[in-house]
Specification:
Largest sheet: 4 strands, antiparallel
Order of helices and strands: HEEEE
Distance between the termini: 79 Å
Strand content: 25-35%
Shape: rod-shaped
Number of domains: 2
Structural class: alpha+beta
Number of strands: 4
Length: 95
Amino acid sequence: MDKRVKIAKAVVFILTSLIIIGTVLLFYIIANDRSVKERKFADNINLKQEIGSEIKDFKVNQNNLYIHIKNGLDNEKILIIDAKKGNIATEIVLH
């Protein structure tokens, strides 16, 4: 009987540990998710594009904004913008 009590205590200890670790991990994930949503971006970004340009697509990844632009001359480019500072970091011209 003594062996069964030791096994039961070990199982209770392991399950309790898993519950505590899971709860801490859950709070950690929620806290990080909230901090991602609270990121501040620039209020105004000047793209400095020609008249007739159109935005085909855009993506936001951490602190960067990726904008796919097609201008009036059938040229396409991708602008990589530092969203916190609001300036163009890189311009990639597609041929």
